[in-house]
């Protein structure tokens, strides 16, 4: 053998030894769940289809089982696939898996506020915000009245389209955005207010960009990619612009604050800040309050707005389902009374359709990443503190035992043989456990009341043959993004 041959053989041998030692190090020191072999630096990047990560998870679960380990850059990731594993992690290991995995695109919110907070302040800020949201949600001036009022504005705006085709993105989005703006800022915007439309554009653009392959890559390999050009810069700029807007509102509120008479959730947070004794690590700061309010503002708008928009597209594809909704709405509510929460009990079909829309569109397929807060024994494995946990919601919402033909839109998934609403514990679009969506109650009320109000007053008309409507999401990442479309709405009376 030549000297070159020997050198190459030695190098290959050394590389194999290095790989084996890395493998042993990561796997033998911890008794981790199985998973595909990771390469140095990139880890298991090539095991993931960045355009459809939930699909890759399903493939990997078929090979390695419902609990498996991946490496993405420096991150050790535990994926939980299927109802049993997800439920066990989120409910039986509530505290251990309640940390928040890092999302580098939201660096500006890291460890403050609620959503991206993996620090010691998360628990108290979440608890206080939830109590305040609940207080603002109750009573006559509460969420039901707030949504009902906004539903009237939405119906008026839809009437003004006079049967002409329009893009529903921002028109529909105005309603949930105004509901949360009222809770946060005691403010309602006109539907053509430029600032309002700009904010909704930022929310919408970020949700879309966060669902592209590049952002999946960036969020896992940000240390390598941060300084490169790319759409992550746009996301970061948009986050900064939203934060700047909220920061101005928080400052205005601070200047005009009357602690004896808080006007909205922002005031309530400011009152808590004023009450706090000076300390090295205060719970509430101006920046922390800004992040908390910004979290609620965009989470409270884009999710509900996308669900409604996707829902209308689905209903246009299935006119026979829309017809049944009209029939139930006419029978229970009639043509003029504003839909109310109490109506839901008598409207199993509308209830089932709203649930099926949320199941089918699978809005946040891979959930938000959680993180292990301490070394944890899970199903006999030892999961080290700091491991990123992905409890896949897609794998629960698309369970083919619980929901036969999960790829099909079937309200019957939530109806029993007598046409009554059928509860399913697999309905988990809001996740579960300590990190469960803080706006679940509000979102569910909005979806029911707004969809009922739209269909009470209008029939939906597609611009293409319903059979040609393709319901597949155009992007799958952070969210499942619906196809872009236009529609017409025709007054029913
Ligand atoms: C259809 C509507 C919505 C869906 C599908 C949805 C879904 C989700 C999901 C999947 C999570 C992650 C849970 C986890 O980490 O385990 C989440 C978190 C969150 N959501 Fe929602 N959401 C919706 C509406 C809302 C609304 C209206 C608000 C605001 C009032 C809101 C505020 C939040 C907040 C603050 C968190 C972070 C909770 C935490 O980290 O402790 N969401 N949501």
Automatic annotation (TrEMBL):
<dbReference type="InterPro" id="IPR017972">
    <property type="entry name" value="Cyt_P450_CS"/>
</dbReference>
<dbReference type="GO" id="GO:0120319">
    <property type="term" value="F:long-chain fatty acid omega-1 hydroxylase activity"/>
</dbReference>
<dbReference type="GO" id="GO:0005789">
    <property type="term" value="C:endoplasmic reticulum membrane"/>
</dbReference>
<keyword id="KW-0496">Mitochondrion</keyword>
<dbReference type="GO" id="GO:0005743">
    <property type="term" value="C:mitochondrial inner membrane"/>
</dbReference>
<comment type="similarity">
    <text>Belongs to the cytochrome P450 family.</text>
</comment>
<dbReference type="GO" id="GO:0030544">
    <property type="term" value="F:Hsp70 protein binding"/>
</dbReference>
<dbReference type="GO" id="GO:0009617">
    <property type="term" value="P:response to bacterium"/>
</dbReference>
<dbReference type="Pfam" id="PF00067">
    <property type="entry name" value="p450"/>
</dbReference>
<keyword id="KW-0560">Oxidoreductase</keyword>
<dbReference type="InterPro" id="IPR002401">
    <property type="entry name" value="Cyt_P450_E_grp-I"/>
</dbReference>
<keyword id="KW-0732">Signal</keyword>
<keyword id="KW-0349">Heme</keyword>
<keyword id="KW-0999">Mitochondrion inner membrane</keyword>
<dbReference type="InterPro" id="IPR001128">
    <property type="entry name" value="Cyt_P450"/>
</dbReference>
<dbReference type="GO" id="GO:0018601">
    <property type="term" value="F:4-nitrophenol 2-monooxygenase activity"/>
</dbReference>
<keyword id="KW-0472">Membrane</keyword>
<dbReference type="GO" id="GO:0002933">
    <property type="term" value="P:lipid hydroxylation"/>
</dbReference>
<keyword id="KW-0443">Lipid metabolism</keyword>
<dbReference type="InterPro" id="IPR050182">
    <property type="entry name" value="Cytochrome_P450_fam2"/>
</dbReference>
<keyword id="KW-0492">Microsome</keyword>
<dbReference type="GO" id="GO:0019899">
    <property type="term" value="F:enzyme binding"/>
</dbReference>
<keyword id="KW-0276">Fatty acid metabolism</keyword>
<dbReference type="InterPro" id="IPR008070">
    <property type="entry name" value="Cyt_P450_E_grp-I_CYP2E-like"/>
</dbReference>
<keyword id="KW-0479">Metal-binding</keyword>
<comment type="function">
    <text>A cytochrome P450 monooxygenase involved in the metabolism of fatty acids. Mechanistically, uses molecular oxygen inserting one oxygen atom into a substrate, and reducing the second into a water molecule, with two electrons provided by NADPH via cytochrome P450 reductase (NADPH--hemoprotein reductase). Catalyzes the hydroxylation of carbon-hydrogen bonds. Hydroxylates fatty acids specifically at the omega-1 position displaying the highest catalytic activity for saturated fatty acids. May be involved in the oxidative metabolism of xenobiotics.</text>
</comment>
<keyword id="KW-0503">Monooxygenase</keyword>
<protein>
    <recommendedName>
        <fullName>Cytochrome P450 2E1</fullName>
        <ecNumber>1.14.13.n7</ecNumber>
        <ecNumber>1.14.14.1</ecNumber>
    </recommendedName>
</protein>
<keyword id="KW-0521">NADP</keyword>
<keyword id="KW-0256">Endoplasmic reticulum</keyword>
<dbReference type="GO" id="GO:0008392">
    <property type="term" value="F:arachidonate epoxygenase activity"/>
</dbReference>
<dbReference type="GO" id="GO:0018960">
    <property type="term" value="P:4-nitrophenol metabolic process"/>
</dbReference>
<comment type="pathway">
    <text>Lipid metabolism; fatty acid metabolism.</text>
</comment>
<dbReference type="GO" id="GO:0019373">
    <property type="term" value="P:epoxygenase P450 pathway"/>
</dbReference>
<dbReference type="GO" id="GO:0020037">
    <property type="term" value="F:heme binding"/>
</dbReference>
<dbReference type="GO" id="GO:0051879">
    <property type="term" value="F:Hsp90 protein binding"/>
</dbReference>
<feature type="signal peptide">
    <location>
        <begin position="1"/>
        <end position="28"/>
    </location>
</feature>
<comment type="subunit">
    <text>Interacts with chaperones HSP70 and HSP90; this interaction is required for initial targeting to mitochondria.</text>
</comment>
<dbReference type="GO" id="GO:0006805">
    <property type="term" value="P:xenobiotic metabolic process"/>
</dbReference>
<dbReference type="InterPro" id="IPR036396">
    <property type="entry name" value="Cyt_P450_sf"/>
</dbReference>
<dbReference type="GO" id="GO:0008202">
    <property type="term" value="P:steroid metabolic process"/>
</dbReference>
<feature type="binding site" description="axial binding residue">
    <location>
        <position position="437"/>
    </location>
    <ligand>
        <name>heme</name>
    </ligand>
</feature>
């Amino acid at each position: 053998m030549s000297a070159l041959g020997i050198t190459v053989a030695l190098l290959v041998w050394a590389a194999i030894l290095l790989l084996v030692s890395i493998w042993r190090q990561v796997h033998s020191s911890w008794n981790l769940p199985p998973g595909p072999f990771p390469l140095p630096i990139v880890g298991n990047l090539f095991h993931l289809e960045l355009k459809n990560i939930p699909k890759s998870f399903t493939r990997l679960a078929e090979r390695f089982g419902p609990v498996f380990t991946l490496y993405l850059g420096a991150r050790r990731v535990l994926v939980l696939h299927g109802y049993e594993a997800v439920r066990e992690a989120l409910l039986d290991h509530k505290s251990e898996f309640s940390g928040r995995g890092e999302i580098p695109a939201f660096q500006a919110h890291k460890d403050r506020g609620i959503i991206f907070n993996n620090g010691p302040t998360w628990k108290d800020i979440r608890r206080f915000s939830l109590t305040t949201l609940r207080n603002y949600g109750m009573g006559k001036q509460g969420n039901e009245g707030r949504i009902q009022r906004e539903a009237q504005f939405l119906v008026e705006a839809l009437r003004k389209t006079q049967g002409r085709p329009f893009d529903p993105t921002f028109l529909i989005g105005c309603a949930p955005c105004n509901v949360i703006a009222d809770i946060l800022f005691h403010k309602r915007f006109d539907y053509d207010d430029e600032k309002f439309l700009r904010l909704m554009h930022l929310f919408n653009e970020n949700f879309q960009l966060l669902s592209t392959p590049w952002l999946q890559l960036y969020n896992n390999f940000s240390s390598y990619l941060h300084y490169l050009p790319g759409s992550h810069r746009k996301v970061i700029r948009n986050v900064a612009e939203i934060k700047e807007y909220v920061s101005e509102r928080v400052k205005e509120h601070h200047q005009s604050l009357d602690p004896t008479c808080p006007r909205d959730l922002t005031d309530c947070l400011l009152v808590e800040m004023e009450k706090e004794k000076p300390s090295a690590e205060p719970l509430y700061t101006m920046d922390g309050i800004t992040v908390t309010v910004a979290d609620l503002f965009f989470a409270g708008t884009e999710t509900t707005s996308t669900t409604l928009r996707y829902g209308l597209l689905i209903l246009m594809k299935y006119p026979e389902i829309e017809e049944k909704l009209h029939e139930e709405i006419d029978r229970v509510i009639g043509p003029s009374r504003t839909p109310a929460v109490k109506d839901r009990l008598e409207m199993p079909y509308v209830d089932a359709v709203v649930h099926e829309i949320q199941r089918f569109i699978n809005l946040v397929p891979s959930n938000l990443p959680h993180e292990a807060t301490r070394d944890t024994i899970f199903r006999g494995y030892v999961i080290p503190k700091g491991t990123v946990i992905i409890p896949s919601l897609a794998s629960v919402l698309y369970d083919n035992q619980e929901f036969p033909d999960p790829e099909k839109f079937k309200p019957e998934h939530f109806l029993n043989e007598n046409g009554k609403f059928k509860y399913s514990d697999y309905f988990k679009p809001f996740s579960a456990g300590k990190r469960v969506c803080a706006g679940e109650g509000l979102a569910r009320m909005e979806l029911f009341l707004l969809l009922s109000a739209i269909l009470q007053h209008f029939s939906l008309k597609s611009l293409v043959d319903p059979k040609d409507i393709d319901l597949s999401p155009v992007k799958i990442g952070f969210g499942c993004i619906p196809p872009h479309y236009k529609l017409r709405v025709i007054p029913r009376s």
